Amino acid sequence: MPENTGASYASAGVDIEAGDRAVDLMKQWVKKTTRPEVVGGLGGFAGLFDASALKRYERPLLASATDGVGTKVDIARRMGVYDTIGHDLVGMVVDDLVVCGAEPLFMTDYICVGKVFPERVAAIVKGIAEGCVLAGCALVGGETAEHPGLLGPDDFDVAGAGTGVVEADEVLGADRIRSGDAVIAIESSGLHSNGYSLVRHVFFDRAGWELDRDVPEFGRTLGEELLEPTKIYSLDCLALTRLAPVHAFSHITGGGLANNLGRVIPDHLHATVDRSTWRPDPVFTTVGELGGVERLELEKTLNMGVGMIAVVPQDSVDVALATLADRGVEAWVSGEVVERGDHAEAVTLTGDYAK
């Protein structure tokens, strides 16, 4: 009989066996993220989490967040380094959860690739799992999708969703903030995962730099600097709430410090932030100088060295700073909250950055 030459999933570019191999490789990493509440293992159609653990709450509120890491995936692809981008994904999700005071419970991920290379997918999941460990949450499931024809063989993207829980009367936010509160800045680990379209345009299109270029100001190559993982703050922030009366957090992501802090400042109040209280890492100033980017544009695109803000009463500043220092987290008082008065904006940045 003639050989069957009909179409198949494999001939369309989807390799089911490679996908199964990727799942086998990632199981060891997912296992490291388990919590007592996780029921079952990897491989089911849905991840299971024992909600009876929430009985200890009087009125548990579930918090949910979803995000990706934007065009930072292009740096990982070009570098051929896939085991750090997962840290970025976890940080972008769980640090949104903790802003309202929620403890991250579990995450799921979505990895979309042009072609499944099992070891590559497993490396991405390894990074996600390591990030979940740092955040104290479980990775209960995910999806790997192969999209030949839409993505090139080396192209990929990642996204994730997380769920957390917070006691209803302990939710943090604008309604807790009072005039006189201190604004505490918590350092970032670098660019984190925002503004990479601008960063890539400046370094690659305008300056013509290569990823393997050694940059003395960075103390490493450009690629290594750009792949620095997003700092995961969730456990540090939760520890802070247990020892100090935190009124609000603000996760400094796309939109910059003023825009994100403004999201938790009530209409009748105003926050001032003094730039002279810190010195941004060289990567921020380098982007500005190489690209001729104005300060305002930098500040509304990049975190400028501050990844999280905590708003606390003035009499809790010492405890808050000591708590973060004990956890190895660099933080400092950067401003205060005052009555809105004639201020049109929720947040004003004053002064010049420290040299």
TrEMBL record:
It holds the Pfam family AIRS. It is found in: Cytoplasm. Pathway: Purine metabolism; IMP biosynthesis via de novo pathway; 5-amino-1-(5-phospho-D-ribosyl)imidazole from N(2)-formyl-N(1)-(5-phospho-D-ribosyl)glycinamide: step 2/2. Residues 58-166 form the PurM-like N-terminal domain. Its EC number is 6.3.3.1. The keyword Lipid metabolism does not apply. It is an enzyme of class 6 (ligase). Residues 178-343 form the PurM-like C-terminal domain. It catalyses: 2-formamido-N(1)-(5-O-phospho-beta-D-ribosyl)acetamidine + ATP = 5-amino-1-(5-phospho-beta-D-ribosyl)imidazole + ADP + phosphate + H(+). GO terms for molecular function: phosphoribosylformylglycinamidine cyclo-ligase activity. The keyword Nucleotide-binding applies. CDD domains: PurM. Its main location: cytoplasm. Keywords: ATP-binding, Cytoplasm, Ligase, Nucleotide-binding, Purine biosynthesis. Belongs to the AIR synthase family. This is Phosphoribosylformylglycinamidine cyclo-ligase.
